[in-house]
Every structure is written in structure tokens, then in C-alpha cells.
Inverse folding.
């Protein structure tokens, strides 16, 4: 065999995976509180408005609440996550361009 | 010294090593130096820190940026051990929330990470601050910048064409490391402007788009030079026009001489560039102007907006002197949703 040498692996070690339980699914659409999160990319607001129109004609959704991130390139704000968790049963995040 | 990284037995042949590295997504396409235990241990030793010490977790994959992993990537890039403090400090800097590392790592934009070295470290390490400093020809510049890209790619997991989603990338993603040419102006260097001592060595990290070269050999006064720079900042399609943030202006020494002669100093230069470097609203595509207005509080308030500032304010023009002879300066737009970070190097250099 040709001469060999031993090298060290340059890859980072990711943190151990945590098991996360998905949020409980409501049993019906009746009265659910739906959040619509705009990530600020162009046209995401239009997509979410259209989604609200379509869903409100089809299901007995209780309420629609619109939210907006500080910027598409920024992490979602912690206080906004907390607000949505408190105010919504579902959240739809639109990420168009 | 106990090093924990997984070991790989590879052929000694440089070509086979290159194939091995590229197959695993660790490289940049160019030949690498094998990061052997001996070389990595020398890197760790020169950092003055223990190998297992974590400096933070780098997105996307939140890989642990330990001194050892920084050292492996530095060795692979061809760094000398004494460059390690620059890399460790640069890694520390990008964790500042104002840098917006998750956005920078995940964007479709053309973002490179520019490392600017300040203070005595430049001379001690041989970091080029003069002619062709962004280009080839100096080991410190070439390999420190390359190692930093490897760190983001291999520890952070931003793999080109995969998890690094940049539409175009740019050449600066191979390597971007320069020194400030502190000796070419009477003004305080950037790290001193930001509160450090001139005798400190420091690192500034900036998330940059490609450069715009300003050629003004015709102006015979400072104001003319500044007008040329201001007009090069006016790019209606840039991240800065849309999102504000920070923009970099690198003044070439010959332009600096003219500005100094005419009584300009950094605060006045920044004020001039902030006012003159605005993009007239008629240059924007209407939808893009609306996007800018929707994202920038300072613009929302103005009904009869005639022009858009390309930075958040005068203080968001990151101004420093670098380069060699020639009547040139540089404008370097940034990711917009980012600000540069300067950190003192916890290491003393002489030379």
C-alpha cells in the first residue's frame, strides 16, 4: 500500500438531538385561533391574506391574527414566539419571494 | 495534548488527499495541508487555550467551535500556528447578535466574511495592509481568510450548493483577510475609534458583498474624491439600499493624503457620505422602494421621501484606511441586516 498519514476530522460536532413532542392537534376546526406569520419577504402578506379568505369560507375558524417578523434575515423574536404560543392554536408561516 | 477529533487514515499523496477532502465536503477545491495531529497540536498550543474549550456553536448545524476544531481547520488551510489568536477572536466576534450570524450563514446573498486585523498583530504575523491586500501573495491574508471560511463551512455546516444557499457566492468566500493601513493616515485606526488602545491588537469581522472600486485620479481636492465615493454607494438594488445597516468605505492612501491636506477627518467624511450617498427614489423599482419603506422605520415616517440613505446613520459607515499607492478607494456594501464587530485579541504581539 502507498504511504499513508493520519489526519483529524475538521467537522464540528452538533449538539445532541433533543426529542420534541409536537403540539397537540385540536380535534376540530371549530373556533380554533389561527396565527398568520409574515416573514417580510415580498408578497408573503398577500399570500397570507388570500389564505385567510380561502380558509374562512371553508372552515369555522374562530379567529385569524396576523403577525410580522422584524426581518426575513433575522431570527424570530422570542417575545413574538411567546405571544403566538399564547394567542394561537395553529400558526402558518409564509416564506415566499 | 489530548485531541478528540475522529482520525482518518489517508494516502500521503497530495492529489489523493485533495480527493478525500473534497469527497467529504471539507474543502474549497484547492489543495489543502493535511491536518495531522502534530500540526493541530502546534495550532492549539499557539492559541494559549485548551483544545476542548468551546467558543460557541456555529449555525446552521450548531457545531461546537472548540479550539481543537478551529485548529484543525486552520491547519488544513495552511495557517501558521501564530495566526490562531486571529481566528479565535474572529470566531468570538461573529457570535455578537448584531452580526446576525444565522442570517449571514443562511442567505441567498453573496456574503463573504471579511476579517480586518488591527494593531501590532499585523506586523508580527505579516498581514498585508498595502498593495493588493485583498488579493493573492501573502500567506497570512490568504490562509487566515481561508481557514475562517473552512470554520463556517465545516464547523457551522454551511456547505456550498447545499446548506450554503448563496445564489452566486463570490471570490471573497475563498478568503477575505486584510490589515488596516494604520500608518497611512493621522486618524485613529478603526479599533481605536471603537474604544481600544492603539497598542492593542484587534480583529473586525464584516459580512460583505463584492467590492465596488472607486477610480478617481482626476479630482484635485478632497470633496471631489468624496463625491466619487458617495456616488459609488448609491446602488438601488443593494442590500444596503433596501435594509440600511452598515457599509464599508476603504480609503486608499493617496485619497487620504488629499483629504488630510484639505482638512477632512473621519466624522466629517462620514457626515458627507451619509448625505451625498443617498439613492434617489426615482432609481428604485416601485415595488423594491415599498419593500425598503416597509423594512426601515426611518423611511416609514417620511411621506415625501426623495432619497434613501444606504446606512442606518453616519456612524454606520465603517471607514478605515488600507491599500497601496494609486488614486483609488473602495466601497464595500454589506448584507444590510448586519453590523461589523470589533474584538480585542487576548494576546500580545511584538513586531
Amino acid at each position: 500500500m502507498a504511504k499513508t498519514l493520519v489526519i483529524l476530522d475538521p467537522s464540528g460536532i452538533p449538539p445532541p438531538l433533543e426529542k420534541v413532542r409536537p403540539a397537540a392537534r385540536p380535534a376540530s376546526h371549530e373556533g380554533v385561533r389561527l396565527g398568520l406569520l409574515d416573514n417580510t419577504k415580498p408578497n408573503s402578506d398577500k399570500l397570507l391574506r388570500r389564505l385567510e379568505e380561502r380558509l374562512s369560507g371553508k372552515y369555522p375558524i374562530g379567529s385569524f391574527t396576523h403577525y410580522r417578523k422584524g426581518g426575513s434575515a433575522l431570527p424570530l423574536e422570542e417575545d413574538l414566539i411567546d405571544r403566538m404560543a399564547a394567542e394561537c392554536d395553529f400558526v402558518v408561516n409564509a416564506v415566499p419571494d | 495534548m489530548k485531541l478528540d477529533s475522529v482520525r482518518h487514515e489517508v494516502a500521503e499523496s497530495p492529489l489523493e488527499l485533495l480527493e478525500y477532502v473534497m469527497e467529504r465536503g471539507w474543502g474549497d477545491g484547492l489543495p489543502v495541508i493535511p491536518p495531522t495531529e502534530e500540526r493541530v497540536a502546534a495550532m492549539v498550543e499557539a492559541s494559549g487555550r485548551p483544545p476542548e474549550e468551546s467558543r460557541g456553536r456555529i449555525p446552521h448545524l450548531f457545531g461546537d467551535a472548540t479550539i481543537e476544531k478551529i485548529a484543525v481547520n486552520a491547519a488544513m488551510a495552511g495557517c501558521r500556528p501564530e495566526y490562531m489568536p486571529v481566528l479565535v477572536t474572529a470566531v468570538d466576534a461573529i457570535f455578537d447578535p448584531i452580526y446576525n450570524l444565522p442570517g449571514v450563514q443562511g442567505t441567498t446573498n453573496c456574503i463573504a466574511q471579511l476579517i480586518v486585523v488591527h494593531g501590532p498583530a499585523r506586523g508580527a504575523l505579516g498581514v498585508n495592509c498595502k498593495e493588493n491586500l485583498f488579493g493573492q501573495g501573502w500567506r497570512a491574508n490568504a490562509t487566515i481568510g481561508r481557514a475562517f471560511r473552512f470554520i463556517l463551512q465545516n464547523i457551522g455546516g454551511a456547505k456550498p450548493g447545499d446548506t450554503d444557499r448563496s445564489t452566486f457566492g463570490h471570490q471573497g468566500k475563498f478568503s477575505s483577510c486584510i490589515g488596516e493601513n494604520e500608518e497611512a493616515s493621522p486618524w485613529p485606526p478603526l479599533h481605536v475609534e471603537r474604544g481600544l488602545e492603539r497598542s492593542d491588537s484587534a480583529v473586525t469581522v464584516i459580512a460583505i458583498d463584492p467590492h465596488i472600486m472607486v477610480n478617481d485620479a482626476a479630482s484635485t481636492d478632497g470633496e471631489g474624491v468624496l463625491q466619487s465615493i458617495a456616488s459609488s454607494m448609491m446602488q438601488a438594488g443593494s442590500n444596503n439600499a433596501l435594509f440600511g445597516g452598515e457599509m464599508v468605505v476603504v480609503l486608499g492612501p493617496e485619497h487620504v493624503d488629499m483629504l488630510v491636506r484639505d482638512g477632512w477627518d473621519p466624522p466629517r467624511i462620514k457626515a458627507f457620505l451619509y448625505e451625498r450617498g443617498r439613492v434617489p427614489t426615482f432609481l428604485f423599482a416601485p415595488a423594491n422602494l415599498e419593500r425598503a419603506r416597509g423594512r426601515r422605520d426611518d423611511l416609514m415616517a417620511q411621506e415625501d421621501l426623495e432619497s434613501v440613505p444606504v446606512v442606518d446613520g453616519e456612524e454606520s459607515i465603517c471607514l478605515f484606511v488600507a491599500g497601496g499607492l494609486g488614486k483609488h478607494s473602495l466601497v464595500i456594501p454589506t448584507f444590510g441586516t448586519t453590523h461589523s464587530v470589533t474584538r480585542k485579541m487576548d494576546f500580545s504581539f511584538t513586531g
